[in-house]
Amino acid sequence: MSRKTALYQTHLDLGGKMVDFAGFSLPVQYSGIMEEHRAVRTAAGLFDVSHMGEFMFRGKDAESALNALLTNDIRGMRDGQVRYSLLPNERGGAVDDVLVYREREDRFWLVVNGANVAKDAEWIKSRLRGADFFDWSDDMSQIALQGPAAESILRTLTDERNIPEAYYTYVPHADVKGFDVCISRTGYTGEDGFELYFMNAVAEQVYNLVYEAGKPFGLLPCGLGARDTLRLEAGMPLYGHELDEDIPVNETGLGFAVKVSKENFVGKDAIAAHVPEYARVGARVKERGIVRENCDVYCGDEIVGYSTSGTHSPTMGYGICMLRLKRGFADKELFADVRGRRVALEIVPLPFYKRK
Amino acid sequence: MKQYTKTHEWVEVASDGTAYVGISKFAADELGEIVFVDLPEEGQKVAAGESFCEIESVKAVAEVNSPVSGTICKVNDALADSPELLSGGGEWICAVTLSEPVGELMDEAAYEASLN
């Protein structure tokens, strides 16, 4: 039995086609993946991402306590800053990928993947030393307002100073038409945009405020389908695909978030000792068709990797995928095995799509 | 007159006895935007209830089961460049020279009723 987010009824009212995802019943689409995708690239889209988890860390040593569990270095973050990190295991794989929010010196937040909330909470509680841990996931909702019109939409709902100026910064308590909303300038689409956090009790009201304010700008409600095509075009990893417990973090192309030089942290020795054998690369499909996840990739008769995610790119109009590919094969002729059909691939730089 | 399978394909036998095969509008709607059809080949044998073709949408890949048994005598090549033609449910995928009569399938009214 999957759980419902506080916006479940809203999705039904908007004609959302519901599926089970990360233990929640969430819309995979409303009007259609392509149309929703285009709305985010050209105007705005609104996503319910309440399956995501929110953990709070409190105490004067919260920074160092948390830093010992992360691959990125969170020392020196300013209040209101956000930073991407992996949550490593002892073997140098990833328990999860997370966003770290610094509210103030003695208060940090982690936003974690919905499917991993329980696992992460256990993992963190058994290793955290020197800070208090609170799991707010069940009480909080999150929506993502994404697209070039996102800022204009938000400006109709809140004072200008409540809108974080820089990417990866946030305002913990913004007054949005009387509601207490955390506004974060972050996202998972490759567009400008915001992620908004608030308590479940006000979820429907806040969602509807943003939805109504966005309509004149061309905003569409968007489901998980468009979320996946958008993040894939933007070359962003998805836990369980490009990342997992057994993929060494230094083979994921996320070096900017892995600071092996910092003081001791979980998995540091394993990460430092590991010589990468694979890389995360992007590929376009050179013929018609889609290479989805878990297709073997061949160079001649040799299997040299596999696809971790793949879709039809609505923006480019051809198939794109991410591969876990053995090093040294990116410039070779590669094929994916799609249910027995050999499909030619061409390695291209990530991201596939970059906003202008 | 179109006849339908439980797995959302249809077959329509033309006056010359050739059986045209497609997918229902319901199936197309469920798939969403169709971006690729892995078309079968002329001369390929098909058996009722067995997969002979794959359709890819952004959302999913679906196997198409043949409603009839026989040999494919014509393929709708327009689908190679315009797979979205299938969206309305009216477009055919291939034509089959039957090796045995069409089995028991649903007429349109029974099929529509089965969707509810």
Report on the structure:
The complex is a heterodimer of chains A (356) and B (116). Chain A is α+β, with helices and mostly antiparallel strands. Chain A contains eight helices and 20 strands. Chain A has helices at 8-13, 33-42, 62-67, 117-127, 150-155, 203-214, 224-233, 268-273, and strands at residues 3-4, 17-21, 24-29, 45-48, 53-58, 81-88, 94-104, 107-112, 132-135, 140-146, 170-176, 179-184, 193-199, 220-222, 278-285, 296-299, 302-312, 319-326, 334-338, 341-348. Chain A has a six-stranded mixed β-sheet with strand order 11-12-13-10-4-14, sandwiched between helices. In chain A, helix 2 (33-42) packs across helix 7 (224-233). Chain B is α+β, with helices and mostly antiparallel strands. The model of chain B has no long low-confidence stretch (mean pLDDT 95). Classes of the chains: A alpha+beta (356), B alpha+beta (116). Chains A and B meet through loops of A and strand 4 of B.
Question: Strands, helices and their partners?
Answer:
The complex is a heterodimer of chains A (356) and B (116).
Chain A (H helix, E strand, L loop, with lengths): L2 E2 L3 H6 L3 E5 L2 E6 L3 H10 L2 E4 L4 E6 L3 H6 L13 E8 L5 E11 L2 E6 L4 H11 L4 E4 L4 E7 L3 H6 L14 E7 L2 E6 L8 E7 L3 H12 L5 E3 L1 H10 L34 H6 L4 E8 L10 E4 L2 E11 L6 E8 L7 E5 L2 E8 L8
Parallel strand pairs in A: 1-3, 4-14
Antiparallel strand pairs in A: 2-3, 4-10, 5-8, 5-9, 6-7, 7-8, 10-13, 11-12, 12-13, 15-18, 15-20, 16-17, 16-19, 17-18, 19-20
Chain B lengths: L2 E2 L4 E5 L4 E6 L1 H7 L2 E5 L6 E2 L4 E7 L3 E5 L4 E6 L2 H4 L10 E7 L9 H7 L2
Antiparallel strand pairs in B: 1-2, 2-3, 3-9, 4-6, 5-8, 6-7, 8-9
